[in-house]
Sequence to fold (92 residues):
Amino acid sequence: MARKKYSAEFKTKVAVAAIKGEETTNQIASRFGIHPGQVRQWKRQMLDNAPLVFERSRKKDKEHQALLDKLYKEIGQLKVERDFLARKSGLI
Fold:
C-alpha cells in the first residue's frame, strides 16, 4: 500500500486548525480525512519550526544586502574604468 503524500499547504491548514484549538484533534482529523496522530505530528512540527521562519528571513536579508554591496562595488569600479578610458581616448 502506497503512502499518501500531502502538500505543504494542506499540512499548514491542518496544523493551523490544531493550533487554534477551536476543535479537538479528532474533529480536525475527521474534517480533513486524516489520522489524529498526523494532526498532532504536523502541529508539533509547525510549533517546533516556527522560529525558523524569522531566522530565514533575516538570513535572506543579509545575503541580499551582501549581494547588493557587491554589485554596487562592481558598478563603481566599472564607472571608474569607463571614466579613465573616456579621458584617455579624449571623449571627455
In short: The two ends are 77 Å apart (CA to CA). Residues 14 and 20 are 10 Å apart (CA to CA). The helical segments are 8-20, 25-32, 36-89.
